[in-house]
Amino acid sequence: MVHARSHRQIQKINMMVASDYDPLSQSAMAPAREAFPNLLNGFRILHGAAFDGDALDLRRKRIIALRIATAVRCERCIDAHVHASFKAGVTTAQIHEAAAVAVLMGGGPAKT
């Protein structure tokens, strides 16, 4: 089901997405933002929608995102999701366990 979002909700989503990424990642994305603003805006909306809802708490969603980032070996994604996980209250021990599960599920190459 598609939900119409208010301007305020979209601003909140944009702020949440922007805060997930470190300044280096944000500056690296600047050329893409300029060249494809609608694409990046779409990603922000998708990102916000993925973390919306309350069936799973934010900490669990952050851990899931971190596990997937690790399994697919996306270094910038891992950095962003570790940072966001800490902000959501995930502990270092939980991040280590999540990473161990992700390496298992991603096979040996996920550890590199």
Summarize the structure.
With 112 residues, the protein is mainly α. It has helices spanning 7-20, 23-28, 30-35, 37-50, 58-71, 75-87, 92-106. It is globular and about 35 Å long.
Q: What structural keywords apply?
A:
globular, 7 helices, single chain, mainly alpha, 112 residues, 73% helix
Your description of this structure?
The chain is 73% helix and 0% strand. It contains seven helices and no strands. It has helices at 7-20, 23-28, 30-35, 37-50, 58-71, 75-87, 92-106. The mean pLDDT is 79.
Protein topology:
Blueprint: H1 7-20, H2 23-28, H3 30-35, H4 37-50, H5 58-71, H6 75-87, H7 92-106
Helix pairs in contact: 1-4, 5-6, 5-7
- Helix and strand composition category: mainly alpha
How many DSSP helices?
Answer: 7
Which regions have little confidence, pLDDT < 50, spanning 5+ residues?
none
Number of strands: 0
Give the overall pLDDT as a whole number. Answer: 79
Overall geometry: globular
Largest sheet: none
CA-to-CA gap between the ends? Answer: 39 Å
Rg is: 15 Å
The helix fraction, in percent, is over 70%
